[in-house]
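In the design runs reported in the main text, the only information available to the sequence generator was the tokenized backbone. The following block is the verbatim input for one such run; it is reproduced so that readers can re-run the procedure and compare outputs position by position.
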């Protein structure tokens, strides 16, 4: 079932970009704009958000309304919009194993002299267009007006909270690590990752399907547990995995001075020498592989890596317990649990 849903989501994304071009003549307005969007949203991805949206919807209806898949890709388009902006903030040169959007646009501009803007400026605007596309796609489902309104409000809330999470994470970067708390870190995880990647797609899909408030709220909470576990796992991969696995450099988080759960726990349990090294690395403008190796060693030796893995397991167990209370049709409840485990493996 998963493969079937994912393939259909991929087809819908390709179909939608051509449809939006017919409706709004993007390729005539700007061939560069159209090509940039088409290439970026067509890249291979996990499609977690639309898949969760669809599972949650199908878990509460007997027959799917027309336009479900077109509506579900709104969650993926919102994700793409955020990635384009996030890569600018992170100064990341790659995304999903290919050049980031602003890198592509900087290459396009490289043959032009005396211009007063760059690829980052263009990518911000392209991201804004993709946000509009996400809202446009969402309205495609043929469902009751009130359900659509309530679900759209949740989609907009997801965008609002994710932006807020990005904002406070950046400000957290200037905060001394000994002033950062576990609560601060999970607040960012909830706002920036758990909400729009897991909790909101589940809540939006179930809201469209007509699930009652209690069931929607349980699904949202289930998504928060999954999102937290996913982010902790992502932090581990970001520090220890090879670039070809994550699609970005494992120096990225250190370059940004991110106070992840891994770094926070390591700092709390490190000696004075190691604490000084962590502080120095997080404040450096240029981080190299030697810095990475030293931080990796501290993270392992302080037990931070084991701690993070236990956190993931605890969050998965909380989600499993909640799964039994979701009130979905049995086959989709089981499918959601299996898919959740697959995403976190």
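Verbatim output:
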């Amino acid at each position: 079932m998963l493969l079937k849903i994912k393939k259909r989501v991929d087809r819908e994304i390709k179909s939608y970009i051509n449809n939006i071009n017919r409706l709004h003549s993007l390729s005539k307005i700007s061939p560069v704009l159209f090509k940039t969007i088409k290439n970026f949203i067509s890249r291979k991805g996990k499609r977690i958000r639309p898949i969760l949206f669809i599972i949650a919807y199908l878990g509460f209806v007997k027959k799917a309304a027309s336009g479900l898949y077109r509506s579900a890709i709104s969650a993926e388009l919102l994700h793409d919009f955020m990635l384009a902006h996030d890569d600018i903030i992170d100064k990341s040169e790659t995304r999903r194993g290919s050049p980031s959007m602003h890198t592509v646009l900087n290459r396009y501009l490289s043959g032009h002299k005396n211009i007063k803007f760059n690829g980052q400026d263009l990518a911000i605007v392209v991201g804004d267009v993709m946000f509009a596309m996400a809202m446009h796609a969402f309205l495609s489902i043929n469902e009751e007006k009130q359900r659509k309104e309530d679900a759209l409000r949740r989609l907009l809330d997801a965008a609002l909270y994710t932006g807020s999470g990005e904002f406070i994470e950046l400000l957290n970067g200037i905060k001394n690590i000994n002033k950062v708390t576990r609560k601060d870190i999970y607040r960012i995880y909830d706002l920036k990752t758990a909400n729009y990647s897991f909790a909101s797609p589940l809540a939006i899909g179930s809201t469209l399907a007509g699930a009652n408030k209690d069931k929607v709220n349980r699904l949202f909470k289930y998504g928060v547990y999954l999102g937290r576990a996913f982010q902790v796992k992502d932090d581990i991969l970001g520090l220890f995995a090879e670039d070809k696995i994550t699609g970005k450099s494992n120096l990225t988080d250190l370059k940004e001075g991110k106070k992840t759960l891994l770094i926070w726990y390591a700092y709390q349990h490190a000696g004075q020498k190691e604490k000084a090294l962590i502080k120095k690395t997080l404040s450096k403008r240029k981080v190299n592989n030697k810095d990475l190796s030293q931080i990796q060693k501290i993270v392992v030796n302080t037990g931070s890596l084991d701690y993070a893995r236990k956190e993931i397991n605890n969050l998965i167990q909380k989600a499993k317990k909640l799964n039994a209370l979701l009130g979905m049709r049995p086959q989709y409840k089981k499918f959601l649990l299996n898919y959740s485990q697959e995403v976190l493996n």
